[in-house]
Amino acid sequence: MSCRKIRRSLSRYYKGELSVKEKELIDQHILACEGCSREAQGFRALNDAIPGLDRFTPSPAFESKLEQKIREFPSAEREPKVKSLFTIFPSLRWAFIPVAVVALALFLILKGGFHKSQTISKKPETVTSAETSLVRTPTKSENGQVLTVGLQTNRHEVNLSPRKRASSRAVFVMDNLRLSDLEKLPDSKMPERGSANFVIDAVNYRPVDNRQTNVGYILPAVSSASSNVRKVY
Amino acid sequence: MGMDSLVNHPDPNSENHGNRNRLSSILEGAISSLPFKYRTVFLLRDVDQLSYEEVASTLNLPLGTVKSRVNRERRIFQKKLKPMMEECYELSKDSPLSIPIL
Question: What whole-number distance in Å separates Cα of residue A137 and Cα of residue A152?
Fold first, then answer.
């Protein structure tokens, strides 16, 4: 194995993800190669520092702020970022209708006729406004270090195309929450050690642009200094 | 991780505590510079030690996607840490972490 390959495997080496044979190869190489040995030791030091990472402490008002932010988020995302032409010139809206009808008719004809198109078209699912609620689910990992908070929301009043529905699940991850904060959550189990991520799993969320993938949303991070909402990604 | 038996917990008043803080600071810098989608898998897989399957389930992603993200995340992570590796080695020498690897 080359030094380059060895160094690239160090992460998996320390996570115990290598086969016995691969591990032996690395062991032998590290014994013989000072450069790789130093890098391995430095890497291990970093690896061992992971459990000791400082955690941000959210303020006592964190939960209510979080909930409020979640409630605000769907409506905020529906706000147009740029004023549309129709907002500036409302009369254009009426002028647009016949143009749209003609364009639609042309499209349908080109697609093979009205009848066929109507048969195969799928009606987009309209999700109507409803109450949003946070569902706190106890930890799901073996060592109990992750708390998944399900956000059940049907607040969208938008039409979700079949394609959009397929990717309409978003995950919010709030990192850097201190372990003790789990105590405040009613149904959670306290992990024995370590830290906790706060994973907020939002179903039926509609990605608003290409930048946002399945895990493309993130809620406000919490700063250690002010314990307030710091920024929204 | 997985090396707990080899690691002694440092006395908070010792120089080792300072070394550990520096290591944490290096680590935090690298974590925060990871793009979001890679930071997510890093936090779940490497910090919270979830299995690949659990990460996939938590993030509602296919297992293959999670594996490739973890793989990519580690490459990015290692690349970002590369300039600091010598310093990390020096810091580890004086700490209880410097027990020989083998």
Answer: 12
Question: Which tens digit of pLDDT belongs to each residue from A218-233?
Answer: 332 222 222 222 222 2
- So where are chain B's domains? 15-95
Question: What CATH number does domain B15-95 carry, 3.55.40.20, 3.40.50.1110, 2.40.30.110, 1.10.10.10?
Answer: 1.10.10.10
ipTM comes to 0.73
Contacts of A221 in chain B (CB under 8 A): none
pLDDT tens for A186-226 read 333 333 333 333 444 333 333 333 222 222 233 322 222 22
Enumerate the residues of chain B whose CB falls inside 8 A of the CB of residue A51.
1
Q: Which phi-psi region, left, alpha or beta, contains residue A225 (left: φ > 0; alpha: ψ -120 to 50)?
A: alpha
Quote the minimal CA–CA distance from A7 to chain B in Å. 9
* The overall pTM is greater than 0.95: no
